[in-house]
């Protein structure tokens, strides 16, 4: 199987890269990514995943556009205030590439509701803005054996990591942050502030790491780098990488990894 001529033209700059090639582009066209959170990380991640030719996108967010979002959430405009982000994102995708299959869900993710939504997905990219959601997303990914790219940003720092806690020896997001953040009262974005371009850097970097995961076994770029946390510092600027070890007592992934 190969891509039709119009798609070969559209993705020519990918296909010419030896690290992606025709086989990699075909894999992207067959991929299903669930995007949780359509804010400062989700907006650019959506744009670059769509631009990369990911064939199916499920969008999950219950929030509406506020004028204070426009400083970093790149797919929205002034007239969008008060509108549901998932509906606007779906419209953005329709205008950008009609061949992308889109499933838009206006929902706040909770532990019980997340897992069925991830069924059959190749990857979840989480750009949500609070620990409770990120932990619920992580637990659901482990339960459904779906890889997770988790991304967060605040002030001048971004964090991006790919997790496969369902695999032996691989950590999950909960191994990283522990159980202390399950409550919903530890958000700090609104109080702390954030440079808009930091959200852009973090979101596009998350899209890059997502593409690595999607190309695993399909192209040489496909090294998922499980459990490596990349810390993006906008003040220096610098990029540091550290390894997140699997926590044998983790509530999210311990005991699940003997499939
Ligand atoms: Zn874990």
Topology:
Blueprint: H1 5-10, H2 12-15, H3 21-29, E1 32-36, H4 42-51, E2 56-60, H5 85-96, E3 101-105, H6 111-118, E4 123-126, H7 131-144, E5 148-154, E6 157-163, H8 173-177, H9 189-192, H10 196-214, E7 228-233, E8 238-243
Parallel strand pairs: 1-2, 1-4, 2-3, 4-5
Antiparallel strand pairs: 5-6, 6-7, 7-8
Helix pairs in contact: 4-10, 6-7
Zinc ion binds next to helix 8.
Distance between the termini: 32 Å
Strand content: 15-25%
Q: Name the hetero compounds present.
A: zinc ion
Low-confidence stretches: none
Overall mean pLDDT score? Answer: 94
Work out the number of β strands: 8
Give helix and strand order, one letter per element, not per position.
HHHEHEHEHEHEEHHHEE
Please summarize the sheet with the most strands: 8 strands, mixed
Oligomer classification: single chain
Count every helix, treating DSSP H or I runs of 4 or more residues as helices: 10
């Amino acid at each position: 199987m190969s891509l039709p001529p119009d798609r070969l033209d559209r993705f020519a700059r990918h296909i010419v890269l030896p690290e992606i090639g025709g086989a990699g582009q075909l894999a992207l066209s067959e991929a299903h990514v669930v995007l949780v959170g359509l804010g400062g990380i989700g907006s650019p991640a959506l744009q670059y995943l769509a631009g990369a030719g990911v064939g199916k996108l499920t969008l999950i967010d219950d929030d509406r556009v506020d004028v204070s979002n426009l400083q970093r959430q790149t797919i929205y405009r002034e007239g969008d205030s008060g509108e549901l982000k998932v509906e606007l994102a779906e419209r953005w995708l329709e205008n950008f590439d009609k061949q992308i299959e889109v499933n838009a869900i206006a929902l706040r993710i909770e532990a019980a509701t997340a897992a069925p939504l991830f069924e059959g997905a190749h990857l979840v990219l989480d750009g949500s803005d609070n620990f409770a959601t990120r932990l619920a997303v992580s637990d659901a990914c482990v339960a459904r054996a779906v890889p997770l790219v988790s991304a967060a940003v605040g002030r001048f720092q971004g964090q991006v990591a790919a997790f496969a806690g369902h695999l032996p020896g691989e950590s999950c997001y909960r191994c990283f942050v522990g159980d202390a953040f399950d409550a919903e009262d530890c958000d700090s974005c609104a109080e702390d502030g954030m440079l808009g371009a930091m959200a852009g850097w973090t979101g596009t970097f998350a899209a890059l790491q997502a593409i690595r995961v999607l190309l695993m076994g399909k192209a040489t770029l496909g090294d998922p780098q499980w459990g490596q946390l990349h810390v993006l510092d906008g003040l220096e600027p610098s990029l540091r990488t550290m390894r997140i070890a699997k926590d044998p007592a983790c509530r999210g992934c311990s005991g699940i990894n003997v499939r």
